[in-house]
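Troubleshooting: if your tokenizer reports a length mismatch, compare your output against this known-good record of 677 residues.
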Amino acid sequence: MSVIPAALVTATALAGAGAPAGCALPYRLRVPATGVLTAGVGVAGGTAGVAALGGGRWSAAFPGLLPLAGAHVAVDALAGLFMAVAGAVVGAVAVYGIGYAAGHGAHGLGSRTAQAVLPLFALTLVLVPVAASVSTFLAMWEVMALASLLLVLAEHRERDSVRQAGIWYAVMTHLGLVLLLAGFALFAGQTGGETFAALRAGAHTMSPTVRGLVYVLVALAFASKAGAVPLHAWLPRAHSEAPGPVSALMSAAMVNLGIYGLVRTGVDLLGGGPAWWWLGLIAVGGASAVYGILQAAMASDLKRLLAYSTSENMGLVLIGVGASGLFAAYGNRPLAALALAAALLHVVNHAMFKALLFCAAGSVVRATGLRDLDRLGGLRSSMPFTAGLFALGALGAVALPPGNGFVSEWLLLQSLIHGLVVPGVAVAVVLPLAVALIALSAGIAAAVFVKALGVGFFARPRSTQAAAAKEAPLSMLVAMALLGAGSAALALVPGLLGDGLDRAVGAVGLPGSGAVSGGGLRVRLADVSATLSPVWVVAALTVALVLAAGLPRLFGRRRRRVNARLWDCGGGAPTPRMAYTATSFAEPLQRVFDDVLAPEQDVDVTPVRESAYLVERVRFQRRVPDRVEHRLYDPVLRSLAGAGQAARRLAGGSVHLYLGYGFAGLVVLLLILAVGW
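Known-good structure output:
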């Protein structure tokens, strides 16, 4: 037996053992046992993915495993990339979850239900890319959705907001399933088969209208799973309300499968399409990147901030996938390969630093019970390792060297800038706008994570919980250190992914880009070339920092130092109330983007009872709601609620009335059949 099937069988067996262990074992045993088995699922799945990236391929059919069509599985380099990413994240987060669940007792993530579902969810993250037929893919997709929903609801007894998040997630994910089912059913009906091989072979026989409809249906479903605007409404709720390890798995592994579905269906199975497909995807990606990071800038909830950051980064990936499809539509396949390589590299980088950030945020929540940055502070001294690892993840998120996010965003910008050689008015307009949006999102991201670090970790503590915080347990620190090491390795030596990234791009019929090789990045096209060595960038930054810190000290020794208390204008020692909060830090940025964010404010003036001219109290409230939700989802929800209230009048309790409804419906049906006949 080759490595790939053996690893997948091992992962399935470990998940099969983890589910009953989570149900049957007592609390003291089930948390470590389930954590170890889940980590084993990740290691086994990641091993299969690495083997596929190394050139291995495998496919099989299991006729009796699923009703009617059976199950079909196949592993190529594209599937292997997403399996390897999911496996790495699952392995580290499962170890982290052992210490995290131990701090919550037999409730929440430590409950029997959550511990039984966790290995199953980990397995689906690995197996979704393995599916090679419509029925197999949809079955794995739905199991993944249900398992993640149960994990999101793990702490539903503690907060009402968890139940609300679960409702939003359940509705949005199953609407996506309906779109997937409709799109794949139409696709399979037109091609005469439901295996991916049959879809791939018959895609060219479909009319352009049908192909476009299939693409739109599946693209909407997959974009929703990736958290793209305006289908992102579930993401900030579910990711922020789920337990820390579950948030890490969802933001660093599950949303990636939306990208996988887009690439597999749009580029591979449908074989690409006209330019309007990809222009629309670039537009959605650009909107997601800017809007997501703006909402993150306004958020004072640490986990909600990270959730909106996920939407931003998935927007960047969508820009890369859209640019790849656009270049291929215009016949420039080497440039299309470069853009897709940049998008896939950012998927890997984002998985590492976002898993690290969510784990660090989970450690903060476990230590303080707080997510509100306005009530945190002082964690640098009480949780130094967590603070340092959060800073490492933040460095990747802001796309500045030497963070790993810089590597993939640089490559993405190179593909877009060099794409200006492609003829066409649409390309000439869209690509510069995309470059500007990426630069804008990167600049705002820097402000976002300066706020998160400065207010949450470096400022004075603003609550007793923050002042009494203690460092996370060893298992959590080890897991975060592994994720930090992965982020550092991707930042310094991206060439580790070179050949595997080329094979993943080649799996969808594009030529290898050779963009990542050795110790750095390389762009070589017909007329232009560019190179970047992250190691030399880090070396230059290190020298600059040493000089900036050392020269003032060297020349400062000639002067006599006098230590004295700073002049405080008679105000006394500074207090936490004098420091910037997350809300006040974001206020200037909010003023700049007032038209986009549409903040709401309310001033309530209470006069003294005896006089209408004397004021007893003034209350000022200002909030920045999600404008997309406010303008798009709220009217729909109000309309549905009104329709539900109106429909209640039809249920008057009269049997005769109900018989009349049935008779009227039968008459209408007969008339329709008669007209149609």
